[in-house]
Structure to design on (361 residues):
């Protein structure tokens, strides 16, 4: 069935949908914000999963996109000519795919290991391509990357003398700062992270290895990191959807992503059961928020059921009623669905297959 042209209320539930007006306004706001901050925008697509939205961001001024997985980059390469895989690609199978992809689009990759640099260079040389790399810097998150400017320089020097790869710069994700309890604490943590990035870039520059790209930041740091004067591009992507989790981290954009769900049972006056469980609308990272829905005391999910306990008894909500919920955390929700429905003025305008779903390799 082709749902384009249907009213949103005609869609069967549970269904994932996006308000196109809000989505497009969010993209425009982000593009203006980063342009004003004089940084390039390279939105992360790990939670977006569809090339159509990446194309909208690029049309608004984004220079390209960021992907977490090579398979996501392979999907997004349809029409996207500048892709950063902000992750280490290390297995022989993936390295072959990466250099093959380089023949079709300007894909670049993160590195933090000498052996990986040599393997990438060898594969790229054999394929007859030049692969751009960014040295990954651990600015405090304690995940991947190198934690000293000297280590960054040494790996950059190895890249510079290795055939098949080109040193483009450095990258980080200062995601650890999101746990800061107040704005001042968060800014202090970002400043500390950016200090290491600045030191690393300056040391590379001093040794005749200028950083064309200094990539970092995300939606959770998008209000401040661009103003530090360190990064040249920001990887913020989640703020395009601006779910409840991302809204807790920044106020740049408005919620555009929803799951519509139907009431399937009213076993008690203060309890509502819906057809959207954790396979559809998980509540682990952040509770979804109902639109025109009574105050919620507790929101939990089992596999197929949303179990909502209300603050007060309510007799007006009936079995069969449908409600929209702002998604709690899009990164943990979008990939559960096959399609994303684009809705404008209450009417389905687009149905996008979530082509990045399940691309784990």
């Amino acid at each position: 069935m082709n749902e384009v042209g249907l009213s949103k209320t005609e869609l069967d539930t549970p269904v994932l949908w996006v308000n196109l007006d809000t989505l497009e306004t969010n993209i425009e706001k982000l593009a203006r914000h980063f342009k004003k901050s004089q940084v390039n925008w390279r939105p992360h697509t790990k939670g977006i999963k569809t090339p159509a939205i990446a194309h909208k961001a690029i049309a608004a001024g984004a220079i390209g996109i960021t992907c977490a997985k090579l398979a996501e980059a392979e999907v997004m390469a349809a029409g996207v000519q500048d892709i950063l895989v902000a992750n280490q690609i290390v297995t022989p199978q993936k390295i072959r795919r990466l250099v093959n992809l380089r023949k079709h689009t300007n894909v670049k990759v993160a590195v933090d290991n000498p052996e990986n640099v040599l393997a990438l260079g060898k594969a790229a040389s054999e394929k007859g391509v030049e692969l751009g790399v960014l040295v990954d810097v651990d600015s405090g998150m304690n995940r991947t990357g190198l934690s000293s400017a000297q280590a960054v320089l040494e790996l950059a020097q190895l890249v510079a003398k290795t055939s098949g790869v080109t040193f483009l710069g450095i990258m980080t994700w200062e995601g650890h700062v999101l746990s800061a309890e107040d704005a001042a604490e968060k800014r202090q943590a970002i400043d500390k992270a950016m200090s290491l990035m600045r030191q690393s870039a300056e040391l590379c520059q001093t040794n005749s290895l200028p950083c064309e790209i200094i990539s970092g930041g995300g939606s959770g740091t998008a209000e401040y990191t661009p103003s530090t004067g360190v990064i040249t591009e920001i990887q913020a992507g989640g703020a395009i959807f601006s779910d409840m989790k991302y809204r807790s981290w920044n106020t740049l954009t408005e919620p555009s992503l929803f799951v519509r769900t139907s009431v399937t049972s009213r076993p008690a006056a203060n309890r509502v059961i819906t057809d959207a469980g954790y396979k559809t609308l998980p509540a682990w990272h952040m509770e979804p928020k109902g639109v025109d829905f009574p105050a919620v005391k507790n929101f939990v999910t089992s596999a197929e059921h949303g179990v909502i306990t209300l603050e007060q008894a309510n007799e007006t909500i009936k079995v069969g009623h449908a409600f929209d919920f702002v998604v709690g955390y899009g990164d943990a929700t979008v990939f559960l669905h096959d399609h994303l429905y684009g809705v404008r003025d209450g009417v389905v305008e687009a149905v996008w297959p979530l082509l990045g779903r399940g691309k784990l390799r």
About this structure: Residues 61 and 86 are 20 Å apart (CA to CA). The helical segments are 20-36, 51-60, 70-76, 92-102, 114-127, 149-160, 183-206, 244-249. The domain at 1-19+242-361 is CATH 2.40.37.20 (Lyase, Ornithine Decarboxylase; Chain A, domain 1). The radius of gyration is 22 Å.
